[in-house]
User: What shape does this take?
Amino acid sequence: MMFDLTGKVALVTGASRGIGRAIALKLSAQGATVVAAARGDHAADTVAAIVAQGGTAEAVGVDVTDSTALEALPGAIVSRRGRLDIVVSNAGITRDQLLMRMKREDWDAVIATNLTASFTLAQAAIRPMLKQRSGRIIAVSSVVGQMGNAGQTSYAASKAGLIGFAKALAREVASRSVTINVIAPGFVDTDMTRAVVEKAQIDWATQIPLGRLGTADDIAAAACYLASDEAAYITGHVLAVNGGMYM
Ligand code: NAP
Assistant: This one.
């Protein structure tokens, strides 16, 4: 076990696949009870995998752009589980297009899913955390929010927005021992990037000093650290997990 999260209750959005699923599995492997959220029953398979490895988890169906449903989630978890210690705001989408051709509805969808949902969730989760005088909120941003990328103005804006949001909120809640941090992954091998990689035929090895794409487990390890007691003195931080592609 890397970090002991026994007795902690964690909520992970976008837990059906990719990075969110890996985070849910790893938090559970460290002892946390995990609430795995995705649309419909998409997170059921993640929960089955957690239970198979001996952990405790439940699946929740929520569309993070449904503010009313998302807002209600932290309170419902506290009612059922008694507490909420860790929130990983991971659900995200891309709708890539050059700005000249970007449709307003695509811009709105990306901002709503990647940025506004994190606001909604943090606002609802912060109440029980302040009461507990402890808590960890971790937002999954992106290297694209730090360095930009052509064709991704909406995605970059949403991911850079998360960084400013986290730093401001970190200052608001630090006195109650609640920490707010950001993970900025580089290019990670998931459904999200597979399409891009195949389309663009990019030689990633030349852009990534460590010479490979990241794995969802690379990101999950960072999330476990930031969620742990060992990271109690880290807040408002952006942890780059990108193989050195942006320093
Ligand atoms: P992915 O494989 O495409 O998975 C996306 C996850 O987000 C799914 O679980 C999906 O759930 C969920 N989701 C999307 N829209 C949602 C909505 N409206 N309501 C609820 N859940 C929703 O993506 P990923 O690569 O694992 O990415 C996870 C996070 O890491 C994202 O925030 C992404 O921007 C970020 N990131 C990824 C990379 C990368 O290289 N892959 C790099 C940097 C940052 P459903 O099953 O319901 O669709």
